[in-house]
Specification:
The complex is a heterodimer.
Chain A (H helix, E strand, L loop, with lengths): L4 E3 L2 E4 L5 E6 L6 E7 L6 E7 L2 E4 L8 E4 L6 E5 L8 E8 L8 E2 L3 E5 L1
Parallel strand pairs in A: 2-11
Antiparallel strand pairs in A: 1-3, 3-8, 4-5, 4-9, 5-6, 7-8, 9-10, 9-11
Chain B lengths: L4 E3 L2 E5 L4 E6 L6 E7 L6 E6 L5 E4 L2 E5 L5 E6 L8 E8 L9 E3 L3 E6 L1
Classes of the chains: A mainly beta, B mainly beta.
């Protein structure tokens, strides 16, 4: 079956532009997570959803970052007025439900802000 | 803020050697997961440990959860080049609105030389 997909895989944008990163979770998975990962480091939690409800957004760095999952399936992470420090790998993961269930990670979107 | 300290950050060994990776926190987690990540891919779950003092074995890999559920270790016996990768521990939040949220350690980059 299909795993978690993310698009675009690579995004280069100029400083000050807005970007939208998409995550398509495994069908039927209730929970969806967004992380940011630096090379060779562990993922850093950004936010997560159960169904369409955003449960925790404590990891979003500032108010330029927002996320939504309006129909409880596909999610979009939006970064407004991008800055060079936003350059990173953004990963999405989904799990059957919350708790200790396995999280399945997508391939990530490599964002570069020039 | 829950933090997981993972050590060592880098490990370079010869094929056939044994190694241990440590994951420590001052916080209690409901469970702890270990992931392995290869270059260009997302993390993939190896094991979840739930009970304090629990030991799980996966072929040459042995995972242990501390009695107080604050620390864990991963021991690899007779390492092989195929074990090369980024190893990540992740604590699962115990409850509340962040139930299921993963807090990752910084990761251990393991290189096994033939």
């Amino acid at each position: 079956g299909a795993g978690v997909s993310q698009s675009p895989r690579y995004k280069v944008t100029k400083r000050g532009q807005d970007v939208a990163l998409r995550c398509d979770p495994i069908s039927g998975h209730v929970s969806l997570y967004w992380y940011r990962q630096a090379l060779g480091q562990g993922p850093e939690f950004l936010t997560y959803f159960n169904y369409e409800a955003q449960q925790d957004k404590s990891g979003l760095p500032n108010d330029r970052f927002s996320a939504e999952r309006p129909e409880g399936s596909i999610s979009t992470l939006t970064i407004q007025r991008t800055e060079q420090r936003d350059s990173a790998m953004y990963r999405c993961a989904s799990s059957l439900t919350g708790g200790a269930y396995e999280q399945y990670f997508g391939p990530g979107t490599r964002l570069t802000v020039t | 803020t829950q933090l997981l300290e993972q050590s060592p950050q880098f490990l370079s060994i010869q094929e056939g050697e044994n190694l241990t990776v440590y994951c420590n926190s001052s916080s209690v987690f409901s469970s702890l997961q270990w992931y392995r990540q290869e270059p260009g891919e997302g993390p993939v779950l190896l094991v979840t440990v739930v009970t304090g003092g629990e030991v799980k074995k996966l072929k040459r890999l042995t995972f242990q959860f501390g009695d107080a559920r604050k620390d864990s270790s991963l021991h690899i016996t007779a390492a092989q080049p195929g074990d090369t990768g980024l190893y990540l521990c992740a604590g699962v939040n115990a409850g509340g609105t962040s139930y299921g949220k993963l807090t990752f350690g910084q990761g251990t980059i393991l290189t096994v030389h033939p």
